[in-house]
Here is the input.
Amino acid sequence: MAHVASASGAGSASAAGEGAAASGASRPESSAPVVDRSSVEGIKARYRGNALIERLSYLGEVAPASRSSAMALAAAESKAVGSNTGLYASLCEAAGTDPDAEWVSATKARVHTRQEALERELNMKLAAQDRDAIFEAHTAVAKHFADIGSPKSSIASFMRAREYCTPSQLVSNTTDAAKVALGAQQVSSVEGIIRSTLSGATHATPQDHALLHAVMGAARLQRGNFAGAAQSFLAAGPALDSSVSDSIHRDDVAVAATLCSLAAMDRSRCIRMTQESIDFRRTVAAVPDAEALAADYARGQFGAVIRGLDAIEPSLTHDALIGPQWSALKHSIISRVVSDAVAPYARASIAAMSKRLSLPEAQLSDVVVSLIARGLLPARLDAAGGVIVARYSEQRPAVFAEATALAERMARETKQTLLRASMEQHHLAVKPPKNRRTGLPVGMAEGLEV
Amino acid sequence: MASDAGEIKLDPVNPRTENGRQFLDTVSRMAQADLRDLHRYAGMLAHKATLESISRVGSGAVVVLGEAISLPEHTASYACILYTAEPILHRQGHTALFVRFALSLFSEGDRRQLRAVPAFVASIARALGQHARSLGAASAAMRAITRAAEATAPNPHCLTACHAVAAMLGCDGKHYREVCAMADSDIFEVLPAASGCQVEDVLCFYYYAGVAYAALKKWSKATDSFSMVLVTPSAALSAVAMAAERWRILCSLMAAGKPPSMPVAASQGMARSLADDVRPFTRIAEAFVTLNPTALAEALKAEEEALAASSLTGLAAQLHRAQQARVILGLTSTFVTITTAEIAEKLGLGSAADAEALVFDLVRAGTLRASIDQERGVVSFLDDDATADPAMLVKRVESLVGAAAALADAIATRERDVVLSPDCVKHATMRARGRVSAEAGRSGAMAAAAGGADADVAEAMRRSTLDM
Here is the structure.
């Protein structure tokens, strides 16, 4: 009970401490009005081109309240920067506005003419076997496809162009393909070429490196590989666009890096990669919420971390990069936080931990049970008493059971082998039945091997 | 010869007839025969004329066994004659007489002499097994044949036909403990020449041993026994193997909570061959491992027909309970205490009382270490005390090490048998000879063979070369 009391006492003391910390150092105040990053204005302030269109479309789908304004802006951007008439028309429909029919028909004609010209150009260059020219022609075709909203064809053309590119052109080819993939949420299709470019690129600028790492991170995040995503996002560093980006904004990478690190890295590594990394601190400084999360985790203010997650949840569920994986990310972060919070205790009261971590008791119990079942928390739950009890590893029973099982398995397999060897030695075997007419085994009588 | 109220009236042998004299003469010579000559007399008995004379003078001729040939002095002769007379007795409707004589042979016969006539003993045992069942004498037959099995086995690890028949009769008469006691004696060798064992005996013995273990709820041993059926060398799939695999899957679920893997020593392609036949049982196993009671219930309902066809409905009905036990055992790694209401919710039971009853049964069976606070409705899981008693630990380790050492000896013996077998020696000799040039001659070949080989092998090669 003393331990339980101490856990409760520690909980309340640290909760009080966290309250002080929460009101003080971890969230620096700013006099500038804070723009909601997930709002239409917030997205417009950070993105342009296809990246803007993609993010506004996602916002429109998940936030009914912002749908018409997001889709209207996306439609306007689509008309301004591209030739994707299909996308323009669907965005207008979603926004409840009428598309500019004149622009649509003119654009369609222009697209058709341009496509024919590009294909002619490409065929001429292929016939001439001029590698540089072929590369340029394929790249032009790829950009055209991206322009008209055919990302798969665009990426395929970029891949074909790679066969004709010089080492100095390789990086630009990869970054162009990466931007198209990112804009179309098809990042997994370019993961391979990004990996090979990063491993051998000597002509890449810091911006190129940052972009490629960020796209790789996005691909891994899409697959649920939070550890890999954290590594890639952290490697992107501060070189990405911090103004208005046509691919991926530095602030979004900072948030993703923070969340993936919290979700996937063990505590010491997470602190090393976030708090002790100058690059990361520069990157995340522009996103106070993310910065606070990382700082709270490093200081062991676990309740503040969970409250912080709840606070940023509304904006992140509307984010095209993080939104699809938000619930898995949040679950992973909460699991890690609970595990770190409970691990030092011999006995910990569910009620006290629940208050400390700002989690409902039922949810905390579920998380604890899940952690125990996955072998991530060496404890057991006294459900009746509402206490988590540490399970100190007593190796002897497990070792003995394992040794016994191994010995029994050895004996069993040896006897099986001995029986079979004995039977084979004396030519005892189950033989197939014989055909009465031919006297041969049934299969052989029919011409089949038995 | 009329059969009157179960008593068989037989005509006595008439010594005044030529047939009768011939038969009596043969029998009395057999009585004095040396074991080495027995086969000659067996040949004589099997001669058509003698068989005809036996059938002509009637089954009364066989009554002579009780007078001219006595047990245990003339055990081998007794076995020889009974082996010959069995088809005649059966054909003439005197099966009960055969059973009586066979029981006497196995109960009173001399062990050494029985061991000398393994083929006769095996054949008589098989026939006795078959007839005893129909006459309701399975239990007596089982006891007699078990004695014969012990007597005729060349060594304690050797399987004989008598083992297989005894196992079958034991399961028939529900003498499961006796069958298990026989199977517990580590049998993994066959010596057909010395024991009269055939491949069917191997299949039947392990199959019925598995059934007996399963009847006594020794699921792990049952699974192992059925696995032995699968490791028999096979050029075709047998019905016994298919039945054994069905049993094996269900027993493995009861023992370990998961389906079994194919034995490493099984024939290649055995798993493939069995896959289609045991698909219903594989589906049941897949549902079991999900630990979802609903999924298991649905799978059992869907495969009702297959279970009934294999007569495994009773065993399958126990899977529910087994799955529930697995779920509760799984809880012990996560919880120190848990309410019976929560257990009932996890298992989909009707009430906390049902959960309490289930936990009670598991604790009483020794499967679960827990205590129940009935007032509060709380179950407390206790720590495993497998290592609490050091003396018990030491004893267990000693028995495991002893068993491993015995198996190592068996492997060494097997290795010697193989290496010194005529085929292997011949092959080695021819190989050695091929290495030496023709000019070196025979002695050179022998020397070369002896120089590079084990001493026993070299000696065997030298003898085989001289024989050539």
